[in-house]
């Protein structure tokens, strides 16, 4: 970069005035005079900050209106459905914890068989196992059920641990399923909560 001087400043101003910009956009220079700010070394630093601080404004309108008109996609009209007033699941469509526990146990065993506990990799394993369990439970196609899947992986060092899960739900329709897996270096607990959505 060339040394900062009055001649460089004038050349910069000429280039700036002859530069081609968008026809709807013009540049406003800062209010502070550039020549007066060159008088000291701190003034040169101040000039650098001010010369970078060009503000872009739109002619004949605000930039916020243009940005919102350009960036915002056209919203589709939302579909309106009538209420079904179904307070209970259909016959045979209720969440059954038994088969889900089998799925959780099989996914944990196949994913963590022979694995060693490493804090960084176990976090990634927990996310992937949780996604796989959720996808396999979704194959049951339980209508109007929301599924929440948790997988916890920790180091197995002979310690004692207690896990508690609490929720406010309807005991006649909502339920959960859990299963555990343990090897020499780690333990894993998988849980699926199924909540009926009225």
UniProtKB/TrEMBL annotation:
Highest rank taxon of the organism: Eukaryota
Annotated GO biological process: microtubule-based movement
Compositional bias ranges of the Polar residues kind: 1-22
Region Disordered, annotated ranges: 1-44
Molecular-function GO terms, alphabetical: dynein intermediate chain binding
PANTHER family: T-COMPLEX-ASSOCIATED-TESTIS-EXPRESSED 1/ DYNEIN LIGHT CHAIN (PTHR21255), TCTEX1 DOMAIN-CONTAINING PROTEIN 2 (PTHR21255:SF65)
Name of the protein: Putative tctex1 domain-containing protein 1-like
Phylogenetic lineage: Eukaryota, Metazoa, Echinodermata, Eleutherozoa, Echinozoa
């Amino acid at each position: 970069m060339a040394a900062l001087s009055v001649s460089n400043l004038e050349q910069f101003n000429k280039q700036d005035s002859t530069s081609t910009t968008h026809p709807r956009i013009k540049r406003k220079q800062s209010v502070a005079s550039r020549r007066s700010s060159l008088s000291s070394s701190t003034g040169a630093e101040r000039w650098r900050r001010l010369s970078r601080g060009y503000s872009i404004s739109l002619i004949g309108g605000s930039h916020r209106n243009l940005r919102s008109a350009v960036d915002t996609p056209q919203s589709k009209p939302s579909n309106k459905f009538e209420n079904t007033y179904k307070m209970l699941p259909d016959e045979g469509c209720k969440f059954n914890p038994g088969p889900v526990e089998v799925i959780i146990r099989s996914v944990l065993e196949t994913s963590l068989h022979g694995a060693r506990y490493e804090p960084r990799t176990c976090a990634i394993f927990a996310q992937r196992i949780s996604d796989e369990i959720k996808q396999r439970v979704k194959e049951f196609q339980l209508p109007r059920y929301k599924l929440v899947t948790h997988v916890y992986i920790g180091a197995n060092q002979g310690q004692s641990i207690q896990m508690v899960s609490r929720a406010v739900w309807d005991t006649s329709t909502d339920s959960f399923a859990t299963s555990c897996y343990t090897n020499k270096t780690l333990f894993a607990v998988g849980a699926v909560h199924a909540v009926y959505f009225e």
